[in-house]
């Protein structure tokens, strides 16, 4: 339901199909990229809706095919009747993602751009949207294409030396070839280093709020959220189950998980809550360890933190006299009852994540899991090629390794083209003059 609906028809017969149902300026008189007022009529000539039709001729359209967009009223019944009319005129329902798939198959976008469309749709923060837009604009694809060209040039040089020994092609020293391959590996490593950032922007940082009972974990959750989500009570053991919410921290999505206080003893339900807390900690990427600064340290040493998890200690209840256990140290001190607490806490958490390298706002290149797998495979093949070069192996084996690396990089953007290598060989070395 909405004020305006948009129906898109793509394919070589798009104009004729829409033209059968459009009562207005004839298809032959449609001016590209200009809206034309008319009516959609059904097979019996009854008016379905008054619409605006816009024609995008191939190849200058999103899909690379002829595209007609119909802007109609956005009611459910109206749009359904227009779709039914178009189906009877010869159109077919699009499969999920089919327009993006056609754009890819017709060379309008690469695979990274196709994936960026969904990233943009599902973005929950400004940073995530910016990263998706950068990828959608072709930044990642262009970087990978440059790597492919460097690799193609390297392969072409080696294969030209192998296949055309009478053409006086300089084989290059193994050191020079290793240097060129290592340069490509360095670029691949830079992209692989953005995998964690990509995961954060797409899924958020899994952040567990942990600590002893009555340390102020639920209060901390409420402060970060800006509203009372969790029940706060002076009685220890109030939180029995985990509570999960998502906040936007300067563009960084943070998945906050409030857990039951960890201590020895307690009745059966509380023990179950503690076990769930420990299970959440095992899978945490960031742990906010909340400590009652007015009490002794009773829990810090009993929690086993994941090896790769970042841990931020927060000394809560700064409005009360500090216990001797916390006289020294640089842990962040705060009182959740302070009016300045929300701003101070969010700023400190953001600065902590930036300092820890969890996010780099200056560069939002962020590969996903599929990209990571392909690039890791490419790096492995390049490293094998370097090993074979250093060992003095036959150039044929080196070329095989480099071709495998080329295929892996091509898998990221959806391009694997043997003809490109041949073209590089003939254009660069002028084989046969």
Quick rundown:
The protein is α/β, with parallel strands linked by helices and 433 residues long. The chain contains 14 helices and eleven strands.
Key features of this structure:
433 residues; alpha/beta; 6-stranded mixed sheet; 5-stranded antiparallel sheet; 16% strand
In round numbers, the mean pLDDT is: 83
Outline type: flat
Q: Could you say which structural class the secondary elements and strand pairing correspond to?
A: alpha/beta
User: SSE order in H/E notation?
Assistant: EHEEEEHHHHHHHEHEEHEEEHHHH
Descriptive account of the structure:
The protein is α/β, with parallel strands linked by helices. The protein has a six-stranded mixed beta sheet, with helices on both faces. A five-stranded antiparallel beta sheet has the order 1-5-4-3-2. Strand 3 and strand 4 form a beta hairpin. Helix 7 runs antiparallel to helix 12 and helix 12 runs antiparallel to helix 13. The chain is flat. The termini are far apart.
């Amino acid at each position: 339901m909405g004020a305006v609906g948009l129906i898109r028809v793509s394919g070589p017969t798009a104009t004729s199909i829409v033209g059968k149902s459009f009562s207005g300026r004839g298809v032959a008189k449609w001016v590209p990229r200009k809206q034309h007022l008319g009516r959609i009529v059904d097979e019996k000539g009854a008016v379905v809706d008054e619409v605006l039709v816009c024609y995008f001729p191939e190849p200058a359209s999103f899909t690379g095919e002829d595209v007609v967009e119909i802007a109609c009223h956005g009611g459910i019944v109206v749009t359904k009747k227009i779709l039914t009319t178009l189906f009877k005129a010869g159109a077919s329902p699009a499969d999920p993602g089919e327009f993006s798939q056609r754009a890819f198959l017709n060379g309008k976008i690469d695979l990274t751009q196709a994936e960026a469309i969904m990233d943009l749709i599902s973005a929950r923060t400004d940073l995530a949207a910016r990263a998706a837009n950068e990828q959608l604009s072709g930044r990642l694809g262009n970087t990978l294409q440059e790597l492919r060209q460097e690799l193609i040039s390297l392969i072409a040089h080696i294969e030209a030396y192998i296949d055309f020994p009478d053409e006086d092609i300089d084989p290059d020293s193994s050191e020079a070839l290793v240097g060129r391959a290592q340069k490509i590996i360095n670029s691949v490593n830079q992209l692989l280093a953005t995998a964690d950032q990509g995961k954060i922007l797409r899924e958020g940082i899994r952040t567990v709020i942990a600590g002893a009972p009555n340390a102020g974990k639920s209060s901390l959750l409420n402060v970060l959220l800006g509203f009372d989500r969790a029940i706060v009570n002076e009685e220890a053991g109030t939180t029995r189950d985990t509570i999960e919410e998502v906040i936007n921290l300067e563009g960084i999505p943070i998945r906050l998980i409030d857990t039951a206080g960890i201590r020895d003893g307690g009745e059966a339900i509380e023990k179950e809550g503690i076990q769930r807390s420990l299970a959440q900690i095992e899978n945490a990427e960031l742990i906010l360890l909340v400590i009652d600064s007015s009490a002794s340290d009773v829990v810090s040493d009993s929690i086993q933190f994941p090896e790769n998890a970042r841990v931020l200690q927060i000394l809560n209840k700064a409005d009360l006299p500090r216990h001797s256990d916390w006289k020294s140290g640089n842990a962040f001190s705060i009182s959740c009852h302070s009016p300045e607490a929300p701003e101070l806490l969010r700023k400190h958490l953001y600065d902590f994540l930036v300092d820890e390298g969890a996010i780099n706002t200056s560069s939002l290149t962020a590969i996903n899991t599929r990209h990571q797998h392909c690039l890791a495979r490419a790096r492995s093949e390049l490293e094998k090629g370097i090993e074979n070069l250093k060992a003095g192996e036959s150039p044929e084996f080196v070329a095989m390794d480099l071709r495998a690396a080329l295929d892996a990089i091509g898998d990221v953007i959806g391009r694997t083209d043997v003809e490109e290598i041949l073209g590089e060989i003939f254009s660069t070395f002028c084989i046969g003059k």
